[in-house]
Amino acid sequence: MQNLFKILFVLTFALSANAQNIAFNSNELYPEGIAYSKKQDVYFVSSLHYGKIGKVTSKGVYTEFITDTALVSTIGIHANEKANLLYVCVSDPGVAVNTSATTQMKLAKLIAYDLTTGKRKFAADLGVLNPSGGNFANDVDFDLKGNCYVTNSASPIIYKISPKGVPSIFATSENWKKDGFNLNGIVVHPNGYLIVAQSNTGELYKVSIKNPKEITKINSDLILGADGIFLNGENELMVISNSTKQVFQLNSTNDFATAKVVKTAPTEMTFPTTGIVVNKKYYVLNAKLDEIFNPNATKTSNFLIQEIKF
User: What burial letters (b/e) apply to 270-292, b meaning 16+ CB within 10 Å?
Assistant: First the structure.
């Protein structure tokens, strides 16, 4: 039995050693979103605490990229290399250095920046479209026409923002009005619909881009704490659970009418949030947001872009 434990330890260490993890440091950054630029070969990360956007090299060197007074907490981000834009969701969950009573759970914006220079291109105010409800702009993705879609985790809303930065309410559903944190991760499927994850229920939904009233629940395994989601091809969906510290690989054979978990993998740190595919490899951001939301927790500065191997 002792020899068996030794063998398992060696195998686990070998698998971990083969993963190309990217560790980086920035004082109490607490990044939530991650994006990647193939042209620049650099990762972009957001910050709940400071609201700035930073760059991380493949060797783990962090540098500041965007500082803007409009950024309270930066949440989900996405890079559009064709348009040379970085889309940034801006909210105020109450843990930023610049949080205030006037913006906490009221602020919701999508701001687009030049992907190369960091110059602001447009700022879409989403909160004004929902003045009486809670607002938390969480995650963003875009379609081939350059339209962006943003989830509101505090109200049952998906926003649409035109390529020129004009916002509108795109879709809403009574199913997204549960207690707690609702809609979270979002991805545009090439077959003409959105897939969105609902954190508190663990459910996944399809929303037609042509007809946003056409909303269907995907018949799939429930993934509680579902946070960021991302596609690998047309039939494989990755779902990150921040509460269970796991990454779920789901496959579908019928255009996501149904989906099934086929593999899972743990994350190395607490509260994983979002992920991406880079050079056919899966990477997930270990954000450790449990620390910043706990006033008694020791605050740290080390974070991890973890390669996930199943």
Answer: ebbbbbbebeeebbbbbbbbebb
Could you please report the per-residue DSSP string of 278-310? ETTEEEEEE--HHHHH-TTSPP--EEEEEEE--
Question: For residues 195 and 203, is the Cβ–Cβ distance under 8 A?
Answer: no
Q: Supply the pTM of this predicted model.
A: 0.94
CA neighbours within 13 Å on the CB side: how many for 106?
9
Structural tokens at position 216: 């269907």
Pairwise CA distance, residues 209 & 215, whole Å? 10
Computed on alpha carbons and rounded to an integer, the radius of gyration of the chain in Å comes to: 19
pLDDT recorded at residue 2: 42
The CATH class for the domain spanning 30-308 reads mainly beta
| Parts of the chain with a pLDDT under 70 | 1-18
* φ/ψ (deg, to 5) at 13: -65, -40
Tokens at 162, concatenated: 């035109």
| Residue 224 DSSP one-character state | T
- Cα-Cα end-to-end distance for the chain: 26
The helix (H) or strand (E) run that includes residue 147 is none
> What burial letters (b/e) apply to 151-169, b meaning 16+ CB within 10 Å?
bbbbbbbbbbbebeeebee
Dist. CA 193–CA 229, nearest whole Å: 14
Residue closest to 122 by CA, chosen among 96, 81, 161, 73: 161
Could you give the CA distance from residue 33 to residue 144 in angstroms, rounded to a whole number?
A: 21
In the chain, where are the structural domains located?
Answer: 30-308
Dist CA 182 CA 196 (whole Å): 10
pLDDT at 69: 95
Look up residue 39 and give its two tokens. 């042209």
Angstrom distance (rounded) from CA 217 to CA 137: 22
The token pair at 258 is 């149904």
Q: What is the pLDDT of residue 125?
A: 98
Q: Could you tell me which of 170, 169, 241, 243 has the C-alpha nearest to residue 209?
A: 170
Whole-angstrom distance, CA of residue 148 vs CA of residue 166: 10
